[in-house]
């Protein structure tokens, strides 16, 4: 007799494969990841562009610090507010769809059972098996079954606007602190070089981490992050230098 007490799966078994994202919370994790990565990237790139642009026009440390702090606060609050509004709208839409589905289950349960059977058939299940599965799912949790199969919504894991807002606020702030400190702490002759190198290194790391957490290829994410940051800093520095030369 073969001992399977260690929980290992035999080749060809039906169990989950290592490294594949089968966890039920994958959608929630990806939403958090999206908000955090977007916030960090925005914090790094927008603040770097701002302070590098100011550095192109003036050498004043106080001007750089003021501009950087103002950009940090404005950006973090804007990101948080934007995420809150966006996710609140998504949550409202999900709740409205669930309310409609709940009403339909109460008023026309047989029609809803037929609908669920048809949806399962559309996924390649034979009619008889689809009917049996639909009946079992309905008996266990009719709303949950229709929400997941028909609407693509997990009623137990609706998007939380406050979580998204705080994730964006914190990640933007953390990202923005890097170029701000890099531009104000070093000696004047080293400010620009330290900032550019620090920002590009941070964007490289951010792109790699986001790709790894999302089980996506790292190279495209890194290239996008680095290219976007480099272009932003080059453009804003050029604008700042032109304004500084013009005495504005």
UniProtKB/TrEMBL annotation:
Name of the featured protein: Predicted Fe2+/Mn2+ transporter, VIT1/CCC1 family
GO cellular component: endomembrane system
Pfam families registered for this protein in UniProt: VIT1 (PF01988)
MF GO annotations: manganese ion transmembrane transporter activity
Segments passing through the bilayer: 32-55, 62-81, 164-185, 192-211, 226-246
Keyword Transmembrane helix: yes
GO BP annotation list: intracellular manganese ion homeostasis
Region (Disordered): 1-26
Location in or out of the cell: Endomembrane system
Annotated keywords: Membrane, Transmembrane, Transmembrane helix
Lipid bilayer topology: Multi-pass membrane protein
């Amino acid at each position: 007799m073969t001992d399977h007490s260690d929980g290992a799966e035999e080749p060809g078994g039906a169990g989950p494969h290592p490294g594949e994202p089968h966890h039920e919370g994958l959608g929630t994790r990806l939403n958090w990841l999206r908000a955090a990565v977007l916030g960090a990237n925005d914090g790094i790139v927008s603040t770097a562009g701002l302070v590098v642009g100011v550095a192109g026009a003036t050498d004043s440390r106080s001007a750089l610090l003021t501009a950087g702090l103002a950009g940090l606060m404005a950006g973090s609050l804007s990101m948080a507010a934007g995420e809150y509004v966006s996710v609140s709208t998504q949550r409202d839409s999900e709740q409205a769809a669930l309310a409609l589905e709940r009403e339909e289950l109460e008023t026309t349960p047989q029609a809803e059972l037929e609908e669920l059977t048809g949806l399962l058939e559309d996924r390649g299940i034979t009619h008889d098996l689809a009917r049996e599965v639909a009946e079992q799912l309905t008996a266990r949790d009719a709303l949950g079954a229709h929400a997941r199969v028909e609407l693509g919504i997990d009623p137990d894991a609706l998007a939380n606007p406050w979580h998204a807002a705080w994730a964006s606020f914190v990640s933007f702030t953390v990202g923005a602190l890097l170029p701000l400190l890099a531009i104000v702490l070093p000696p004047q002759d080293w400010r620009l070089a330290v900032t550019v190198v620090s920002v590009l290194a941070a964007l490289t790391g951010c792109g790699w981490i986001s790709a790894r957490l999302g089980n996506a290829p790292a190279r495209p994410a890194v290239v996008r992050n680095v290219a976007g940051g480099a272009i932003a800093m080059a453009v804003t520095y050029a604008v700042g230098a032109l304004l500084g030369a013009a005495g504005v």
